[in-house]
Amino acid sequence: MERSQWGTRAGFIMAAVGSAVGLGNIWRFPYVAYENGGGAFFIPYLFALLTAGIPILIMEFTIGHKYRGSAPLSFFRMSGKKLEWMGWWAIFVSFVISTYYAVIIAWAMRYTIFSVNQAWGSDTEAFLFNDFLQLTVTPGQTGGVVWGVLIPLILVWAIALGILLGGVKKGIEMANRIFIPTLVVIFLIVVIRAVTLDGAALGLEAFFKPNFDAIMDPQVWVAAYGHIFFSLSIAFAIMITYASYLPKKSDITNNAFITGFANSAFELLAGIGVFAALGFMANQQGLAVADVAAAGVGLAFVVFPQIINEFPGFNGLFGVLFFLSLTLAGLTSLISITETYVAGFSEKFGISRNKAIIFGGGLAAVISILFATQGGLFFLDVADYFINQFGVAAIGLVEVILIVWVFRKADMLRDHANAISDIRLGGWWKICLGIVTPIVLGYMMFGLLKTNLLKEFDTETGNYEGYSDTFIMLGGTSVALAALVFGILFSFGKWHKDHA
Ligand code: PHE
Ligand code: NA
């Protein structure tokens, strides 16, 4: 069977940017930057982008392009089957993430509708947790299904899987060619409106004001690296899979730089828009920006609704555009993450792409119902923490060490990229991959293990968010470990004869 291919170079770039630009850019970046030194965060951030983000993106593009397979198949071919497990590990981490990422998109979709008449009323926090999520159980219990979340969730999966069923060119590429330009236009409108609000300057000042002490804090560097991995969708098997559909003649290095900078540009824009809006609200309520800024789900789903409430006219429109941006940005990322296991399953078992979408994507959709129950938010929170820290960051670390040091593939990959790219990779690339990235990620892993094993969280139980040991085990540790175990198990099976 002929391997699917992107129709155009722009199509591939749109898809890669579509994967990178997601919920992480709009609600995660602004508060991560703000909490980690504001203007001064840009130094560790740029450093992480240039020493880890773009170098790893180049590596993953090169691997996918050269070996033309899903992540496990590409690793299998590169290493004489020894590294196949790493590809499956990344795929199972992606599988888990897709189950709850879809749920956050479902919230955004529902909030797009709520925006029309500010259905959340004046107490937006109570609305989110009590009325919308119906969070009435203790962590670890599921409670009943919340239909207000489940219905948009079904819609999210129907759209994502429907687009995947269209194929690489007519599905993924086409959708990104429509969604990404639309997203850019509506998000620009949101940002322009935000910076022209009264008090916007206050917010921007809070956001950009550099706290130079922060750059002396190792945790800030760790935050920058962690964010870059998540934001660029690297170490998730995604970029290998997408690059495997590139035509033989493709510029790899250039595409990686374009993808990396486009993602950062979008992030910066989001930071400006979000903080301008926060400045407006602080000004309205006579508070300091620090008092209205919030982290995590609270920023998009509690604070933004408040901002929309106070808007000087066209409240509904601003809200719709904001939540529609979140929805579109999230959908293109969900499509990319689902494609990793669609490609892997179909190649491994020799089943058609469509069967892999129905069974693989269908299974993820069914599992995601767990997060649409009354206790769903706690499950989502704990799974997200563990799978990101002990999935993505760990895979990134293992990937660079094995590829550069154990299997010594860096020179060969560099030659492959250089033979077809405009920008030629020099010694810096290998130094970043082989030395800088492993040191920072190694330090990061060590700190994480220490905090979790020694129960150093500042809570009663000493666990993340003060969750009970059982819940941490069931919802967090075992999920992160299962991704690795499944990864290893899957690598024992034989490839379907078409791909051996
Ligand atoms: N890159 C996405 C973002 O910034 C996050 C993501 C990671 C999405 C991995 C899918 C897969 O939101
Ligand atoms: Na991103």
UniProtKB/TrEMBL annotation:
Membrane topology: Multi-pass membrane protein
CDD domains: SLC6sbd_u1
GO molecular function: symporter activity
GO cellular component, one term: membrane
Pfam families documented for this protein: SNF
Record has Transport as a keyword: yes
Keyword Membrane: yes
InterPro entries linked to this entry: Na/ntran_symport, SNS_sf
Membrane-spanning intervals of the chain: 12-30, 42-64, 85-109, 145-166, 178-204, 224-245, 257-280, 286-304, 316-337, 357-380, 387-407, 427-449, 470-492
Location(s) in or outside the cell: Membrane
NCBIfam families from the UniProt entry: Na_transp (NF037979)
Family: Belongs to the sodium:neurotransmitter symporter (SNF) (TC 2.A.22) family.
Protein name: Transporter
